[in-house]
Design goal:
Helix content: 55-70%
Distance between the termini: 43 Å
Number of strands: 3
Order of helices and strands: HHHEHHEEHH
Strand order of the largest sheet: 1-3-2
Largest sheet: 3 strands, antiparallel
Length: 162
């Protein structure tokens, strides 16, 4: 007997044929998530980072110095989670605190030269993985997938606010 995929039986999440692809997308994201986490963990650990530290350091490297609450808002995470990661990053000399001219009690967190080079190192280790993934899809399909996932994320963010 063949199993019917979850999204074919889903009447709550899929009341009409038009909505059928959404549970399928969610199911694929759930399958991808642990694989991406595992690969990310290996690449981050090789550079001396824990999994929670990487997105915080990456945000600071990519977007520039920011206060912990701003990073938390941008990453859709708790301020406490971000603060813990920042404390670990400071302990490894990957970020530093700067005076925040807009807020006396909330320093800006900036990447050190070592922090920037750590992100470069991790990203260079990702190149072979990315090349293997791109062998499976066309650049056009990858762009469509990224744009579609970004639209879904933005919509979910707006639903969460409601």
């Amino acid at each position: 007997m063949t199993k019917t995929p979850y999204y074919d039986n889903c009447t709550v999440m899929n009341p009409s044929p038009r909505l059928k692809p959404i549970p399928a997308i969610i199911a694929e994201i759930r399958r991808l998530s642990p694989l991406l986490a595992e690969i990310g963990e290996v690449l981050s650990a090789a550079a001396g980072l824990s999994v929670p530290m990487r997105p915080v350091l990456e945000h600071i490297v990519d977007k520039g110095p920011a206060a912990v609450p701003a990073i938390a808002k941008a990453r859709n995470m708790s301020r406490q989670h971000i603060q813990t990661a920042v404390n670990e990053l400071k302990g490894r000399s990957l970020v530093k605190s700067l005076v925040n001219p807009k807020h006396r009690r909330s320093d800006l967190i900036a990447a050190t030269e070592r922090g920037e080079s750590t992100i470069r190192e991790i990203r260079s280790r990702e190149v072979p993985v990315g090349s293997k993934l791109m062998a499976a899809v066309s650049p056009e399909d990858a762009e469509i997938a990224a744009a579609t996932l970004a639209k879904l994320r933005r919509k979910l963010e707006s639903i969460a606010v409601e």
